[in-house]
# Entry
Amino acid sequence: MSTTNDSLRCDLGDLAYGTWRILDDPQPLSSEELARRFHKCLELGIDTIDTAEIYGDYAVEEAVGKALQSESGLSDKFRIVTKTGINVPSKEKHHASIPQYDATGDNLVHCAEKSLRLLGVDAIDLFLVHRPDWLTHPEDTASGLGKLLDTGKVKEVGVSNYTIYQFETLDQLMGGRLVTNQVEFGPLCMDPLCDGTFDQCLQKKVRPMAWSPLAGGSLFSDQEGAAKRLRGKLAELSPKYGDAPMDALVYAWILAVPAKPTVILGTNKIDRISSGAKGGTIQMEREDWYAIWEAAKGESVP
Ligand SMILES: NC(=O)c1ccc[n+]([C@@H]2O[C@H](COP(=O)([O-])OP(=O)(O)OC[C@H]3O[C@@H](n4cnc5c(N)ncnc54)[C@H](OP(=O)(O)O)[C@@H]3O)[C@@H](O)[C@H]2O)c1
# Structure
């Protein structure tokens, strides 16, 4: 995988396009429409697509694959990140009667092979364990990821939603080959700032990825509390940053922290991909970063 910063284990860029919600809209999404979104991303310098086996009740990877394959060479222009290891009752996972995790090596290999077929690519650029599976020994997980790397079915591996201890344990077993920890982060979820996640990423030269940067849209929909205070502060700051939209300011806020998490955009609106991408060009001032922190928390720093 190409890297833009040699000192990092792997660099996916400032922004990535997330596909969790692409099949949520009432009107069906055509491959052409999704391919249009992908082209818009490329135009804006966004060349990472984030997806997962479980998205859309196990249907999103196929939709992403069809759009990528609708045009010769399109998939080569992107880094594809996919995740696996969550089983919920469904046609796809008929053996699961309740939601559960499975990060056994055999399951990871099996699911990666399925993702390759659905995405229509020869290799997955970055393959993540979606959630820590408390029942699987990390040696087993490491063995599956190692096999996938050794056979070239995946180019890089990482994890999502891992604690620092889970990351450290698996990373040691993998000889320091984990390249990211994809975690929830934004002004309405600041845990990785204080639970050691971002410090560990800095120490290990790993660029984290930030999911649900807008708290899944509740930044805009919640009528009270933190979201309301935050919207007020973002609206106040917008003129200072060239009338930047609120989502762009949030992305700039995320990118301002030293670990510089790759922000995963979750919008289904092509215009919001464009307006949000401005966030990658904004240098947020310290005073304003802390003002956003304060608005989200409802109090000043201790
Ligand atoms: N690793 C994990 O466990 C994990 C978990 C969750 C998500 N993810 C990844 O992270 C990606 C992003 O997560 P997310 O979808 O929750 O991101 P998000 O950006 O926090 O939320 C996206 C939602 O916010 C809405 N939104 C965006 N801008 C808006 C605006 N200006 N006004 C009103 N609503 C707005 C979008 O609606 P519109 O479509 O109408 O714009 C969409 O419904 C996912 O696609 C997925 O790839 C990973």
Summary: The chain has a mean pLDDT of 96. The longest strand covers residues 154-160. The domain at 15-211 is CATH 3.20.20.100 (TIM Barrel).
